[in-house]
Design goal:
The structure is a homotetramer.
Chain A (H helix, E strand, L loop, with lengths): L6 H4 L9 H20 L6 H8 L13 H24 L5 H18 L1 H9 L1 H6 L4 H23 L9 H14 L12 H14 L4
Helix pairs in contact in A: 2-3, 2-4, 2-6, 4-5, 4-8, 5-6, 5-8, 5-10
Chain C binds a DNA duplex (21 and 21 nucleotides) through loops.
Chain lengths: ~210, ~210, ~210, ~210
Amino acid sequence: MASSNNEATARGGRRRSNGAGSSRRAQLLSIAAEMFATRGYSQTTVRDIADEAGILSGSLYHHFDSKEAMLTEILRDFMGNLLSEIRDIAEAGQTPREALDGLIYNSFETIHKVPFAVALYQNESALLATTPEFAFVHKASLDVEKVWLGVLKQGQAEEDFRADLDPGITYRFIRDAIWSTVRWYNPRGRLQHRTVADQYLEMLHGGLLA
Amino acid sequence: MASSNNEATARGGRRRSNGAGSSRRAQLLSIAAEMFATRGYSQTTVRDIADEAGILSGSLYHHFDSKEAMLTEILRDFMGNLLSEIRDIAEAGQTPREALDGLIYNSFETIHKVPFAVALYQNESALLATTPEFAFVHKASLDVEKVWLGVLKQGQAEEDFRADLDPGITYRFIRDAIWSTVRWYNPRGRLQHRTVADQYLEMLHGGLLA
Amino acid sequence: MASSNNEATARGGRRRSNGAGSSRRAQLLSIAAEMFATRGYSQTTVRDIADEAGILSGSLYHHFDSKEAMLTEILRDFMGNLLSEIRDIAEAGQTPREALDGLIYNSFETIHKVPFAVALYQNESALLATTPEFAFVHKASLDVEKVWLGVLKQGQAEEDFRADLDPGITYRFIRDAIWSTVRWYNPRGRLQHRTVADQYLEMLHGGLLA
Amino acid sequence: MASSNNEATARGGRRRSNGAGSSRRAQLLSIAAEMFATRGYSQTTVRDIADEAGILSGSLYHHFDSKEAMLTEILRDFMGNLLSEIRDIAEAGQTPREALDGLIYNSFETIHKVPFAVALYQNESALLATTPEFAFVHKASLDVEKVWLGVLKQGQAEEDFRADLDPGITYRFIRDAIWSTVRWYNPRGRLQHRTVADQYLEMLHGGLLA
DNA sequence: CATGAATGAGCATTCATTCAT
DNA sequence: TATGAATGAATGCTCATTCAT
């Protein structure tokens, strides 16, 4: 899953054989994503990114139209990949419960693989909601929500899931609990993303009470 | 609870017996909190705040030392109140389950009463974690965590709560799901905060599966 | 005539008694007008203007919204004054010939008094014609043309002026010959603007041939 | 006349017997001249020119040393041709009146054939007067003036022209009225350049009064 | 308390130019 | 001839902050 989210691989510098131009772009975007995510978009200056890349700030404009264009490209890639992945999962023809588990595993896996893009999506909500240029993010979010809601509702219809919970609110609780882990989950730490996912599923399935 | 969190009352301009100067401060802080929360701290200019208050930006410096000092004061008030409230709840001598429910109800109530402070705390994590001046926020967060963890562990010990869940991870899941609602919960909407809290408790107690 | 065009007086610094704020603006605009006119608008940097005014470039933005806003204000003042003056002249109820002579004297007087504004109007035609923000300049120019054409046509009707000349083309020839003098006429030189005007009228009235 | 001014022909791309390289130069210069004239020299970027030519901006430097060198070459061609043409006219051994008419016809013809070069010469006076590299333009202008003044003075001596007009000022009036037409004359419009010339001569010869 | 003018550091962006390929 | 990546200096503009009045 999430095979084309390139955050983790691009910086490794392994790839040289593919188109050189595209590789440079990806490299710069990867740097930008990390800085945007850790310092915040508006706290990150174009010079910061350029310094990290070892070039002058003006040179960035050979590759990208603007600082905002970099963020746009990062988020567009992220949202696009995310959407196509969860659609694959939802359409894989399993039971609703298996589908929901799949979506949840995929979410934690995404956090593991492209933590900076996820953090960006989480932290820059004010910017994303305000600037019209980022309307596409909200649109994609609605598409994502539609997929999750479909699974939840079908699960209730098939009596996999409890029927007394409001699907909309339930979706938000699940979504927020999962995506928020990006703030404390460390991809290089000892806690595996599958372990975290299992813990969450355990709690979600059966509840907290003994 | 949360009796001195002043977000909702200050703008009303009732201006009670306390010194007029203090009232002005609270008013300005309230304006700042709302703008910091909705636009983001660094996207909010001192002039934005002053404009909204009907004064010139330079005049703000008669009330506060700096823009950062305004944020500090907002967060210090918020964290202080939050901590004292949850300690009261945890020490009220109930069962762990009653205590946990109390904490959860209180959280949603806080979101209802001081949404801007909560949003600030949620959205400015990058700034808060980076700037040394805001270390006190992290410190208070640890204190809050200690209280919750105490309740959770005691609940496991008393077999109120399942023992197979890791308390640390469980706490984070619960905390993040709750505080994140600040992004979509509308204090003036039709959905009551108690209703949201009840929905969450329902799911948390018994789980999602039928 | 042209009594409120302030280019020549503002820099003198004589006036202190009137509103101090307005005086500072006028002073800065006067500096800007001169530099815009002599170096060209786009060759003049905001720092140039600020240096000449003895302040930092950023401080200019306390008085004006942008560099373009400065040019706009200069041109708006100029076109407004020009239009009101020539309307006064055309409506003074003289013969067409007297009216035309009056317009021509006024033009040379304007060049004498506000050479920088005139030069700006002459030299920045590319910018003025392209940028939509400066459409008002073109509009005012058309109004000016209407006044001149009215005088020329009435003169032909009353047989003051030759009837075999196209009024539109004639107007342009006269206009261009006059306004272009701003490039070589020196307000502080020995050649009086009335002398130049007389020379032009002499040629215009009777022609070049002996 | 003006046989080597290449504005009108170069873009046609006929590419005659001369070296292909030279043709490319002329093509690029033609593009540059048009853009310099219509947007202004400093508002035209090297990239604008390269885009229009279908190459990258850096590639322009294989043909020209600098942006300024392009302008220099355009103006040098223009001034050189102009000077040789008017000298031919002035030395053709006609009466002063015939010579003057010839100069005037030639001027309007030049505007018709190389409007961009003329516009450049008219509009970039600030740049041309300031930058030492363009001193040759001013020098050529003085040579042109000398020719015109010779004709005017001889005309006065031979009593072709009125003796009470100052030749220097008269020259400037005539020159400015003519060259300024470049701003409104449309080479592809219905108004022929000879018609405009005739109108001007009519007014100049006999004056405006009936 | 508030104004208004100014500071000074910084920001995103532009652009003519260079150069290895 | 042309590309594409980069330079380096400059540009218009922003903004938290200061301070005399």
